[in-house]
Amino acid sequence: MNDIIKMSKLYAPTLKETPAEAELASHILLLRAGMIRKTAAGIYTFLPLGWKVLHKIETIIREEMDALGSQEIVMPALQPSELWHESGRWDDYGPELMRLIDRHDRGFCLGPTHEELVTSLVRNEVRSYKQLPLSLYQIQIKFRDEIRPRFGLLRAREFVMKDAYSFHSSQESLQEHYDEMSHAYGRICERLGLEYRAVAADSGQIGGSVSTEYMAIAESGEAELVYCECGYASDTEAACVKIVVIPNTAAELTLVETPNIGTIAALAGFMGVPENATVKALSCKDKDGKVTVFFIPGDHELNDIKAEHAVEGFEFLTDGEMLDAGLCKGFMGPVGLPEGVRVVADVSLKDSASWLVGANKVDYHYQGARCGVDFTVDAWEDLCTAKPDDMCPTCGKTLSHARGIEVSQVFQLGTKYSTAMNASYTDEDGTEKPFIMGCYGVGVTRSLAAVVEQYNDEFGICWPVSIAPAEVAIVPLTIGDDIVTPVAQKIADELRQAGIEVVLDDRDERAGVKFNDADLYGWPYQIVIGKRGVTNGEVELKVRATNEKISLPLGDACATVIKLVEEERAKFVH
Asked: Full-prediction pTM beyond 0.90?
């Protein structure tokens, strides 16, 4: 049973003013409510109340992981560089990987994730298919050297994450565990009280072919997603949607003079057509320096991640490199490109009879450029970043748009790491086979911040009961007297005996200070006790979620609050 938290002893220093560096609600309120303190850019100390919330989130995660049979371990944050060289990620991961050299000139990194280490662990211990499937997880501090740490806990250099890894002997086994993990991740979001969407996602630096992100809906989110009422949802980077393209009506190739028309908007206006009746061109080089020109609908943007999938080592050409390659900036088109330049076009253009596109000549464009007649396409790829007015690939309806905070993600890694690191087991037929792997991460500190982004108002945080640092605050308006103080202590004791988490504001402060702090801290239920109320046999209950104030008979106060708390708890229990 938890002890009563006494505000007079609690280390939770509040701030009256908004810290200069804080932009988002979560960053502002967690600092102002004394739950975190900045140590350095992107590095934070968790104070007692913030730690209580973090611990509750971790408890929910542990309950869900343990229910799936995943076993908790702890791996070192400091990882030998040779493991990352084995996987090939030492150079691929980029400058976000925090690297260091010890006194013996050995290379290490502070782990942003643990695929290499867990693969190394299991390959030395698991030898037979009889030991599979195996699922391991940990909750641990991670490190990423963000170029621009910002938004408090949402983009930090040191953060808490739950990462799980599973090992299988078949794709069917992986799929089963992946689905179980996916459902558990949805339950974690629900138990945290988050409004969320599970969206198809790109696997990024982790790798693998299948991935789903869990996005907490928030206007402050850095991620953009599209979704449909049929259930389809994806982040805009991974979405493969149906794009409406208006075909060019010219029957044959026609050269059109377009003086000083070097942008899509200017071209559409000059020709009197919408932007989705034009074709945009962008040039790049691959890892070997070979030049490619991408062609996409004029009203869309090239998706860098999709471009990287289409062209390994993708990098935009500089103006000088375009000139050296014989390309005409602002007027590129597929007709008459220099020899050796590869043409990659978005799949949405495949059925377009002809294109309105650059003529590879300054101040000129072509109408009626026809694929297979006037030019050829070397590869058709999904290249565009999805937009809200695109069409759902599942049902064809118009997509809606939202912004979100990525709080968790699941991956099917396949044999990416096990093959690279020679991690294998002996199958039933006696052959050596690489483990088939899955990876599953929850941003614990990001989840905390996401909850605050969704649960706040002008007065402070409005914690859901499931992760509030305390469920009920007792706010006596006088301290040390023989009327209010005994009643406040009695109510606090009775609630504590009933298993309710209680904070007692026993500070000798003005009522206004106590009220403001109670709202800033975000206690879900606040029982205000004053002399007049006690004399009249009443106390006041404030419900933080709605700011509703209710007068309760003194004798019914505890029973009423216990019932309210238990009802709220029930909403978040799996």
From this structure: no
